[in-house]
Specification:
By secondary structure, this protein is of the alpha/beta class. 43% of the residues lie in helices and 21% in strands. Helix 1 links the parallel strand 1 and strand 2.
């Protein structure tokens, strides 16, 4: 199974990017993992929030294959403890060819992207910047990998 983090817009904070790169490299020792970035829209000042979500949604949907398992990182999604997330990820590894996690743009996802998604996942009830959630998410994927392998990175 290949796991992809699909994100709208590049990570601009160099410290976050360094942390993300570190976790992506670590995750690569356990499973195929890739971060794919969709370029931010240009000239968004003339677009409504809905138009921006719709255009970003079209770009997101172009990246997906019919057989993909699509999970939106969304504030209304299901929350897991790290151990529960690891078990969930382990199950997905056995049943999915490509597992795609998506972090949308500043206004969230279009209705078409919600309709295409198989699940929604929330990392916290708190709100984080799109930049920070990328680092938090990659750390949690790495943590899940170590839990699955029974390694000591996670302590109960």
């Amino acid at each position: 199974m290949k796991t992809i983090l699909l994100q709208v817009g590049k990570t601009v904070n160099k410290h976050f990017q360094a942390g993300i790169n570190d976790y992506v490299e670590r995750i690569g020792h356990y499973m195929p993992f890739e971060v794919v970035t969709i370029a931010e829209l240009k000239n968004t000042k003339n677009l409504t929030e809905q138009q921006q979500k719709q255009q970003e949604g079209e770009l997101i949907l172009r990246q997906l294959q019919a057989s993909d398992t699509v999970v939106l990182l969304d504030e209304h999604g299901r929350e897991y403890r790290s151990i529960e997330f690891a078990r969930w990820l382990e199950q997905k590894q056995q049943t999915s060819r490509r597992l795609i996690f998506i972090i949308g743009g500043p206004y969230g996802f279009s209705n078409d992207v919600y309709a295409r998604a198989n699940e929604q996942l929330s990392l916290s009830k708190m709100t984080f910047s799109h930049q920070m959630i990328r680092l938090t998410f990659t750390e949690q994927v790495y943590r899940a990998c170590t839990i699955i392998k029974g390694e000591p990175y996670h302590h109960e």
